[in-house]
Specification:
Elements: H1 13-29, E1 32-34, H2 37-47, E2 55-56, H3 60-69, E3 74-77, E4 83-87, E5 96-99, E6 105-107, E7 114-116, H4 119-131, E8 137-139, H5 152-163, E9 168-170, H6 175-189, E10 198-202, E11 209-210, H7 212-223, E12 228-236, H8 244-265, E13 271-281, E14 286-288, H9 291-307, H10 325-340, E15 345-349, E16 351-352, E17 357-358, H11 360-378, H12 384-387, H13 389-395, H14 405-415, H15 427-432, H16 438-451, H17 459-472
Parallel strand pairs: 1-11, 5-8, 5-15, 6-17, 8-9, 9-10, 10-12, 12-13
Antiparallel strand pairs: 1-2, 3-4, 6-7, 13-14, 16-17
Helix pairs in contact: 1-8, 3-8, 4-5, 5-6, 5-17, 6-7, 6-17, 9-10, 10-11, 11-16
Length: about 475
């Protein structure tokens, strides 16, 4: 008999078809703005009509062809060439999680002070994720805020490469420095298309614009045979319609437009699609995740499952003022629903204050949340061996199972499911230890982990070679 497992299914087949047909209608009538002449030329050639301006109206057959030619799964590797995981819409392991993303500030775990994000913080963040077992990807954790550095975004990717062996998701704003980064990775690793460990991440400009910088970076990525993430970020009531339905269809249209461009550049290019739906808080002028945006995240994942395209979704980061009660609720809701739904990848855990401040303590807290979410998602067996009526009969009415053979056999396995950060104190034990606060315990664990991080054996060699390469590069922003 199969396991008892919880799953979330949101859309009916009729709803999926309605979303898709509405998306095709939007793309063919309203269309998208394409800023790049090179990209417009590809669209015009495929449509058979020269664009009169920068507006491209994409016919349904071109969208359907792009959906058919995009691979349904993507194998990712660590930088040593070992397979790390496969992204698809049917992942047995559930959602793949990573940390990031491009925070300009760092939240010191000792005192919660906000500091400019430095190269040292990037090194530390990457080594931390290399140690924690719930994360399989390192996304760019922060933007280095140190003056005088040549190519700080490429340098950040070098630090990521040298301080972990896990796959990397890179976010680089400057397309010319993006080319420098790709050259650096080729210099250090060789052919990037062989056993790919690097996934560039791109955003269109919502609403309905493929900006020139994004298309330039897509060309550079696809020409090197790399997979890519194409993700829309929308704030309902500001950059997307105030309604969930309008937001959903518009963001879906942006994703399919990006998919079409990727397949026009090179048919068969592996693409991960997704959106980061949020709301715009007009009183405070910040974006936020809400229960409705979490639902939109799941709906987007189901649409990508319908298209047989791997999905990248939201990570629940940004609402907290630290690893606090405010952050914990959003993280739990995001990670649990993602893992029970069809979200392939959630790459951006660890930010607070609207994803402006990277927090090691939030990363460690979320690592524990993800671990427990995965245990929940695994379910439990329902068969004769697990029920074991003979065991129940031997103990009988009024007995206990402390000394049963089944308990002795399985206790250590189930005991490992207990919380890894906070001890299970009784009331008396908690009082005897001075009534410790949960946040202080998390802080102490975070500081201890940061003080005992290890770097990969080839760290120094990679940093030396990478810095030498960057010192000789002649690009000037």
């Amino acid at each position: 008999m199969k396991k008892v497992q919880a799953r979330i299914g949101v859309l009916t087949p009729e709803q999926i078809e309605y979303i898709h047909s509405s998306t095709l209608k939007l793309l063919s009538i309203t269309g998208i703005r394409v800023d790049s002449k090179r990209a417009r030329k590809l669209f015009s050639e495929a449509i058979g009509k020269t664009a009169e301006d920068d507006r491209i109206r994409i016919p349904a057959d071109l969208v359907e062809r792009a959906i058919r030619t995009s691979p349904p799964y993507i194998d990712l590797f660590d930088r040593n060439g070992s397979k790390a995981f496969t992204l698809s819409n049917h992942q047995e392991t559930g959602t793949i999680y990573g940390i990031g993303v491009t925070n300009p500030w760092y939240q010191n775990p000792e005192n919660d002070r906000i500091e400019p994000f430095t190269r040292k913080h990037l090194e530390q963040a990457t080594r931390l994720v290399n140690t924690l077992t719930s994360y399989d990807v390192v996304s760019t954790p922060g933007v280095i805020q140190q003056a005088g550095l040549k190519y700080p975004e490429a340098l950040a990717t070098l630090e990521m490469l040298a301080n972990t062996t896990k796959p990397l998701v890179t976010l680089i704003s400057n397309p010319k420095e993006f080319e420098i980064m790709l050259g650096l990775m080729e210099h250090l690793h060789g052919d990037l298309s062989r056993d790919p460990f690097l996934i560039p991440y791109f955003n269109p400009v919502t609403p309905l614009v493929i900006n020139e910088d994004t298309s330039d970076k897509m060309f550079a990525t696809i020409e090197r045979g790399l997979p890519l993430i194409y993700s829309s970020y929308g704030m309902s009531g500001a950059t997307t319609p105030i309604t969930a339905g309008g937001t959903l269809v518009m963001l879906n249209a942006e994703l399919l437009a990006g998919l079409v461009l990727s397949q026009l550049i090179r048919e068969g290019t592996p693409v991960i699609l997704g959106s980061l739906p949020a709301v715009f808080e007009m009183k405070t002028l910040i974006s936020a995740y809400t229960p409705q945006t979490m639902l939109l995240n799941l709906v987007c994942s189901e649409m990508m499952a319908h298209y047989c395209i791997p999905h990248s979704g939201s990570s629940g980061s940004g609402t907290g003022w630290g690893p606090d009660v405010l952050a914990s609720g959003t993280l739990w809701m995001n990670h649990l629903t993602s893992n029970l739904g069809r979200v392939s990848l959630a790459p951006f855990v660890g930010g607070n204050f609207d994803s402006l401040a990277f927090s090691p303590a939030t990363v460690i807290y979320s690592d524990e949340v993800i671990r427990q979410v995965r245990l929940f998602s695994q379910g439990f067996s329902l068969d004769a061996a697990s029920i074991d009526l003979d065991n129940i009969d031997q103990v009988g009415p009024g007995g206990n199972f402390l000394m049963s053979e089944q308990t002795h056999k399985l206790y250590l396995e189930t005991h490992g499911q207990h919380n890894h950060i906070w001890p299970g104190y009784s009331l008396d034990a908690w009082r005897d230890r001075g009534s410790p606060k949960a946040d202080e315990t998390l802080k102490a664990r975070t500081i201890d982990m940061l003080e005992n991080l290890h770097m990969p054996a080839d760290h120094d060699e990679l940093i030396e070679k990478g810095e030498h390469f960057l010192s000789r590069s002649d690009f000037h922003s």
